[in-house]
Structures are given as C-alpha cells and as structure tokens.
Amino acid sequence: MEFVYSKVPVGAISLNIAETTSSEPTLVMLHGVTRKWQTFLPIVAPLALRHRLLMVDFRGHGLSDRATDGYLVANYIDDVCELICKHVDGPVFLYGHSLGAMTAAGVAAKLHDTVAAIVMEDPPLHAMGQRISDTSMLNYFTAVSAFAGSTDSVASIAKDLGDAQFLDPVKSLRHRIGATRDGAQLRFAASCLQKLDPNVFGPMLNGNWLEGFDVDKVFSNLKCPALLLQADVAAGGMLTNDDADHVLALNADLVRVRFEGVAHGMHWTATPRLLNTVLPFLESVR
Predict the structure, then answer these.
(1) What is the pTM of this model?
(2) Residues 60, 66: contact at Cβ < 8 Å?
(3) Could you identify which of 157, 163, 177, 180 might form a hypothetical disulfide with 190, taking C-beta atoms 3.0 to 4.6 angstroms apart as the criterion?
C-alpha cells in the first residue's frame, strides 16, 4: 500500500494529509488529541480495501501547521469542513477517535448531505469539558503537556514520560504513565508529543475546550447513519454511560456498541473486535 502526502491550505494554515489512491468512496480519518495520523496504522489495511483513505494531522499536530487562532474542538471542525469541501468529491465517510470522534460529529452536523456515515470511537464529550476536573484527564494532560514540542530525542522523552505521574481524583491514587502502556506505546506517544504545539493543551486545561461545540445541537443535527463505539470507563474509557445515553436519546439513527474491558485507544487494544464492528456498519451504508 502506498500513501500520497500533501499539505492542504485551510484558512490561514495548512494541514498535513496522507491518502491512498483508489476510486472507492473516501473515508476521512481523524485522530485524537496529542496524536497524529499514524495512530490508525493498525486498521488502515482492512479499511483501504473498500475506501480511499484520507488521514489528517490536526492543526498543531504532526506535520500540520501550528495555529494562532485557537485549539477548540470547534476549530478542528472548521478545518475539516473546509478540507472536505476543497479536497473530496462526492459523499464522504468519517472515522474519528476521541477528539476526532467529536470532530466527525460536528462536521457531519454541518455538512449534512456531504457525509454518508460516521464512526465515533469513544468521544469524551462532557468529560473533556467543564467536568474535566472530576476526572484523571486534567492531571494527565497537565503532566503530558510538559513534553509537547520537546527538542529531546524520542528515547529521552519516552523515558521521562514513562516516569511522569498523574492523579486520579476519584480514587485518590497516583499512577505512573509508564504503568498504563508498554515501552513501544511510550515511544509512539513521545514521537507525537515531539511534534505537538504546546498551546494545544490550553483549552483543555482551562475547561473551555468545548466552547462553540453544543453536544445537543450537534447530535440532534446528524442526518446520516452514525456508529458510536463506547470503551469501558473502568478500563480507561472516556465516554460515560450518561453521555452515551443522552446522545442516543437525541438521534434515532445512532447505533451504540459497548466494548467491555477495553480502554480508550480501542483501535490499538481491540483491533480485530473493532474492525468486526466497523466494517459491517460501513458496508450497510454502501
């Protein structure tokens, strides 16, 4: 499989994209905050059998430009809307993880007939808004932010990242980041942080990341089939049952599939099971 790389202007910045060449319908893939497009490598090959893939580095992430006008969820949505309108012909499918999942929902709510279907992998929704201080995420991102844009080597960042600690306020326990993932995953996280604009963390740590992103309005305005993949909060998932139940009540064409015992990065930790859910859903829309 070959990728074609390019920089596409959107507003005042350019986004780095990697895409496959195919005449199949386009599937735009949107990663989580602090990551880059390569996070989807475990699921690229199966998805590319039936789709032209267009994988995006968000603003301030990977090889995309850093932005001066902000890192709200609404900013990422505007970027992807413009990217699709400029770079994609015909109906488009969207796959997003975490931040990417919320972005996919926001794009679909805006572009309506342009979007054929969306897959949302464990969107954090309100857990990353004003409720962030009630979760371990505030402490986790505070710890991780120290490594954003580092000029140190990947190996050095990975070592220090593994030793960094964060507090779980619910259980009043401190955790080493290195205890939550293996050495290879730490190196990948380090390589992502090395390319990350430190300003990405500002809205999350300040609790205003969702400013301009109205969950009720977005999910009520979805006009296409939507698949909601919910990780297990007890295992490190970020979509709560309350939030999932709430958005399901807003939209009759939203399908939820729970992954018991699976953490937030579902495409890494439960790859076969995830594909066995995503592939038939996408085929149902073809």
Answers:
(1) 0.97
(2) yes
(3) 157
